[in-house]
Specification:
Layout lengths: L1 E2 H10 L7 E5 L12 E2 L9 E2 L3 E4 L8 E9 L12 E5 L11 E4 L3 E4 L2 E4 L10 E2 L10 E3 L7 H8 L5 E5 L3 E7 L3 E2 L10 E2 L2 H11 L3 E8 L3 H14 L2 E5 L10 H8 E6 L1 E4 L5 E5 L2 E6 L3 H19 L10 E4 L11 E11 L4 E6 L9 H5 L2 E5 L10 E6 L5
Parallel strand pairs: 1-20, 6-7, 14-17, 14-18, 15-16, 18-22, 20-24
Antiparallel strand pairs: 2-13, 3-12, 4-11, 5-7, 5-8, 6-10, 9-10, 19-21, 21-22, 23-27, 24-25, 24-26, 26-27
Helix pairs in contact: 4-5
């Protein structure tokens, strides 16, 4: 068995960035990954403009409290005339600063006297309340790099420089199927010896959420020929093939043998808990990932291994999770030669005035309740015991999407 770190490094070395790109509008680019940097062809702001409603002035005209004539009105979207000497201009937020003006006095700091305005010299200094041309983005700036995953704020950022469409990687097609004669689909009548298929719905939720295209091939019976046929069909249609179950060494586990018949299996089993039976290989030239059958194992292995592998293939730059370090609210007294990923949530310790990690009571690999109750995974290193207050690496589920 490979250690967790060895297995993850090996897996990521096998990930080849997809060559397929497409141009999409900003309105359709949420969650997509840039295949080319975004470079600005304009300045933002495109001109010096007012930060607020008030009066544009040349502060050199101010020596003490004075009354000024208002020589022009400048709403946003209009172009002003040069400021007349000894006057002020009524100006509104976002409007261009007129030539010869070098400050904006906010209207709350002035007094209106009929059609004139009184301004105190102490209220003015050069440059105040002015947004300078290009202070946010300068023409020629690379504002977002290749490999960046686009968020809502990024779409606004791109739109602010007038870019309508961006070059992104085409979403990977991920084919999934579950193996097991014991599986029932939700809605079917319960039967003795049968269980409902939860892994299918974890993956059918997680894969599109990460921006990939899901190809759900359903359930495949525990039969070598059926497994072989399903793998062949998945390989034809998808960029990556992923299965749950069937990768152990039992007489009814056929995935391992079927993958080896169609290609190769280069990794099998990792020193981690839950999730030991992780398989990786290729069917012809298409990557294959075999997740464990136990629900918590499949959930954990998908997010810890498959997620970074797929995101790297998709062209994303920052594909690995970064941990937070938090003290525990529990003891762990049974060291294990495998690295353990336990389900925890953050709780406030009022006595210690800090946030600690609380442990779910049942850490079995079939207890999917633990993943719903928890806020993330805490890492217990190999051959380690943990005492209350010890710091552990914590990976929040929210960071995994």
């Amino acid at each position: 068995m490979k250690s967790f770190d060895e297995a993850l490094s090996f897996l990521l070395e096998q990930a080849t960035i997809t060559p397929h790109t497409e141009k999409v509008s900003c309105a359709q680019a949420q969650g997509r990954i840039l295949a080319a940097p975004v470079v600005s062809s304009v300045n933002v702001p495109p001109y010096d403009n007012s930060q607020m409603d008030g009066y544009a002035i040349d502060v050199m005209d101010l020596t003490h409290e004075e009354v000024f004539e208002v020589s022009q009105r400048i709403p946003a979207g209009s172009m002003p005339s040069p400021l007349k000497i000894g006057t002020v201009a009524r100006i509104f937020t976002g409007a261009p600063i007129p030539e010869s003006a070098n400050a904006v006095i906010m209207q709350e700091q002035t007094e209106t006297l009929g059609d004139k305005v009184k301004i105190d010299a102490e209220m003015a200094r050069p440059g105040q309340n002015i947004r300078r041309m290009g202070e946010d983005i300068a023409k020629g700036d690379e504002i977002l790099a290749k490999g960046h995953r686009l968020r809502a704020q990024d779409l606004g950022y791109i739109s602010s420089i007038g870019v309508k469409a961006v070059e992104v990687y085409r979403p990977l097609k991920i084919a999934i199927f579950s193996t097991g004669d014991e599986l029932l689909e939700p809605g079917e009548t319960p039967e003795p010896g049968k269980i409902f298929n939860s892994n299918r719905y974890v993956l059918s939720g997680a894969i599109p959420q990460l921006g990939f295209e899901l190809m759900d091939m359903g359930r495949v019976e525990d039969d070598y020929e059926a497994t072989l046929a399903a793998l062949k069909e998945a390989e034809k249609q998808a960029d990556v093939v992923m299965t749950t179950g069937g990768v152990s060494v039992g007489e009814e586990d056929h995935v391992k043998a079927a993958v080896e018949a169609l290609g190769s299996l280069t990794m099998w089993q990792v020193k981690m808990k839950p999730g030991k039976p992780l398989a990786f290989g290729k069917i012809n030239e298409k990557p294959f990932i075999g997740l464990p059958g136990n629900p918590v194992s499949a959930f954990s292995v998908f997010y810890l291994f498959a997620r970074p592998f797929l995101l790297k293939m998709q062209g994303m730059e920052n594909y690995c999770l970064q941990p937070y370090w938090l003290p525990t609210d529990f003891d762990w007294t049974k060291p294990n030669f495998r690295r353990e990923f336990v389900r925890v949530k953050r709780v406030n310790d009022s006595d210690a005035k800090q946030t600690r990690l609380a442990l779910f009571s049942h850490q079995g690999s079939g207890v999917l309740t633990s993943t719903v109750w928890a806020e993330g995974l805490a890492v217990i290193p190999e051959d380690s015991v943990v005492r209350k207050g010890d710091l552990l690496a914590f990976y929040p589920f929210n960071d995994m999407i």
